[in-house]
Design goal:
- The complex is a heterodimer of chains A (118) and B (510).
- Chain A is mostly helical and 118 residues long.
- Chain A contains four helices and no strands.
- Chain A starts with a helix and ends with a helix.
- Chain B has two domains: 1-274, no CATH class; 276-473.
- Chain B is 72% helix and 2% strand.
- Chain B has 20 helices and two strands.
- Chain B has helices at residues 7-22, 27-54, 77-97, 108-124, 128-146, 152-183, 188-194, 203-220, 229-236, 239-262, 276-296, 300-321, 324-354, 371-386, 392-403, 410-437, 455-473, 475-490, 492-500, 504-507, and strands at residues 58-61, 72-75.
- In chain B, strands 1-2 form a two-stranded antiparallel ribbon.
- In chain B, helix 3 (77-97) packs antiparallel against helix 4 and helix 9 runs antiparallel to helix 10.
- The chains are: A mainly alpha (118), B mainly alpha (510).
- Chains A and B meet through helix 2, helix 3 and helix 4 of A and helix 5, helix 6 and helix 9 of B.
Chain lengths: 118, 510
């Protein structure tokens, strides 16, 4: 199970990083979503991987799973969900305002007007 | 006094909700609520500051859950100073915005209060995951503020800002997760106790987690090589928002100072001063890059944005030395650079709004209204930013140079700070002479709509400059207080005992 979880986190991070470095907003948004999935699973695994164990300490229970990472992941999921919604709306707004979906505001190869302004 | 620690977080949170729910249709009421709340915040944080200067660190356990299981807020000299600085800056910004800027988009005041809540929370919290949550609160509010009033340039810069910060947040979680996996705690005071006891096999994980966290804080503090977001964001943000963002980079510097002096400081065994070898060289490069940007800038706003990068470099040079003298010098410079950056962004907006279609490009243009008066304000602000006498920037840089005397990198630090100061003077001198002096000989006059003497913005800009003057006049008492801050930072046992109880250190035999 360790191998499965670790390699899926690695795969998600790899795809997320690649997409994040693309020039258009849509892949960037998908990349961010993948990265946040990877982080959530990673955070979950930080309490060690155990199966079928109660997430709470009681008398007589010696084997348990750490409840804290689960609470942390819940917080992280809520925040990343909100953030994904925000960035989707923001990229649509940017597309409508600028007229293309490039992260730096101009299609590849177009003359640099931003460079003159900055 | 203990219960008052939570007020700087709860007051803006309640006000923001009230503003957005009850008075969202009435801009006058929004302003009244927002300004009243910020004035109250100044009063509360001032009393917290006075309390902290006479007492040791004080802890507030949220929902009364005992540390280290619950989340704690901690008020010590450093956090009291930072929340007071935030509320003073906030007051200036809300006054400036209340004349006209808050009408250009919706919900300015609600977002502004949420931003104050996030910043205050980040300064007060004693829990590393809670720090993440408050980072998110302040970032979410800052996304809204950054895009306030919209426009193509602002949306483009805003998009990049959001993407970089979301990536930073992911890394923050990775870092926190790694630290938790080997120490089993998220409470900063408890972390300070657990770090030296980490098994040697897990030390590499802890080190990696701590350094990933450092990277995230450096993104916030705009340290090279992760500073790219700052010039575009600050130069394109609405002026009052850019002024408020002057505190955001300081949140990064504060986090570095807090986490790496408490948990990875003197007592951390093998991990002692983990951050020190990375911060100082990066800060030196940041300073050079920022001031080179000042020389190269073609727009007034990006000129100021690059000078903010430069000032973060200067500040982090002091932080990166990690000695008590250097940190109190750096904190003095932190106070100074926050006010001077905010003042310059506000003054720049007054100038830009009068130049009509010429905007903030550094080209000569016909005369505009009050160019003489604004030239004086800009001159004072530029003296502050460049660190020339008689204003506080000079005292701050002098203290940093003095504190660097014993450092191995002394030659580098002195040379770079002195040379970049000259570059900054040249950059601002050129901008000022183009905007005010050379423009005076151009025929014609620009007339734009709007009030000739907008009272609130001028009060706000003069107030920020007044803070610089006050910082210079009261440099003695301020420096005394700051020396107390660095004593407290280096004597971590006070902080740990305040959070975990009197016996926490003796129980583990330290």
């Amino acid at each position: 199970m360790e191998f499965l979880v670790a390699s899926s986190i690695g795969l998600l991070t790899m795809c997320g990083t690649y997409l994040l470095l693309r020039g258009r907003t849509f892949p960037v948004v998908v990349g961010l979503a993948m990265l946040s999935y990877a982080v959530n699973v990673f955070l979950f695994a930080m309490g060690r991987l155990t199966i079928n164990m109660p997430p709470i300490l009681r008398d007589g229970v010696t084997e348990y799973t750490d409840p804290l990472p689960q609470a942390l992941v819940l917080t992280a999921i809520v925040i990343s969900f909100g953030m994904t919604a925000l960035i989707v709306v923001l990229s649509i707004r940017t597309f409508l305002e600028i007229g293309n979906d490039h992260v730096d505001g101009r299609p590849a190869g177009a003359p640099s007007e931003a460079g003159d302004k900055n | 006094m203990g219960d008052w620690i939570v007020v700087p977080i709860v007051l803006p949170a309640v006000m923001a909700a009230l503003i957005v729910l009850a008075v969202r249709h009435d801009i006058i009421l929004q302003r009244v609520f927002s300004i009243t709340a910020t004035v109250a915040l100044v009063a509360v944080t001032l009393s917290l500051l006075i309390f902290a200067s006479g007492n040791g660190p004080e802890m507030y356990a949220l929902s009364d859950w005992p540390a280290p299981f619950g989340i704690v807020l901690v008020l010590d000299r450093l956090s009291a100073m930072m929340v007071f600085l935030t509320s003073l800056l906030g007051l200036g910004v809300v006054l400036f915005a209340s004349s006209e800027w808050d009408k250009r988009g919706k919900h300015f005041h609600a977002l502004f209060q949420f931003q104050l809540m996030g910043v205050n929370g980040a300064f007060l919290t004693g829990d590393i995951f809670n720090l993440f949550v408050f980072f998110e609160v302040l970032l979410i509010a800052s996304y809204g503020l950054m895009l306030h009033g919209a426009g193509a340039d602002r949306l483009k810069a805003g998009m990049q800002y959001v993407v970089i910060n979301l990536t930073g947040s992911s890394l923050f979680l990775v870092g926190v997760g790694m630290i938790y996996s080997v120490t089993g705690t998220l409470n900063m005071a408890d972390l300070a106790i657990q770090v030296p006891n980490v098994a040697s096999g897990d030390a590499a994980l802890l080190r990696a987690g701590a350094l990933i966290l450092l990277l995230v804080f450096c993104v916030k503090a705009a340290l090279v090589p992760v500073h790219f977001w700052l010039p575009g964001t600050y130069a394109n943000a609405p002026a009052p928002v850019a002024a408020l963002f002057a505190i955001m980079t300081k949140v990064g510097a504060y986090s570095v100072l807090r986490v790496y002096s408490l948990a990875f400081g003197d007592t951390a065994g093998d991990m002692a001063w983990l951050a020190a070898p990375y911060i100082l060289p990066a800060a030196l490069v940041t300073l050079v890059l920022g001031m080179t940007g000042v020389l190269a800038a073609k727009r007034l706003n990006s000129l100021i944005a690059f000078s903010v990068i430069g000032s973060m470099g200067t500040l982090l040079i002091a932080v990166g030395l990690f000695t008590p003298e250097a940190i109190s010098a750096g904190l003095y410079y932190l106070l100074h650079s926050t006010f001077s950056a905010a003042a310059l962004f506000l003054i720049a907006d007054l100038v830009v709004s009068r130049r009509g279609q010429f905007g903030d490009s550094l080209h000569t243009a016909p005369r505009f209204h009050q160019s003489g008066f604004l030239a004086v304000l800009f001159f004072v602000g530029a003296i502050g930013m460049a660190g020339m006498p008689p204003l506080s920037g000079f005292i701050g840089k002098l203290q940093i140079l003095d504190a660097a005397r014993d450092s191995d990198a002394m030659v580098w630090i002195w040379a770079i700070i002195l040379v970049t100061s000259l570059m900054c003077i040249v950059g601002f001198g050129r901008a000022g002479s183009v905007l005010f002096w050379k423009s005076a000989s151009v025929d014609g006059e620009i007339t734009v709509e709007g009030a000739k003497w907008p009272v609130l913005p001028i009060i706000a800009s003069c107030g920020m400059l007044g803070a610089l003057v006050a910082l210079t006049i009261f440099a003695g008492p301020v420096t005394d207080y700051l020396q107390g801050v660095s004593v407290q930072l280096f004597d971590t046992s006070q902080y740990i005992e305040a959070v975990l109880g009197e016996n926490a250190l003796s129980l583990i035999g330290q």
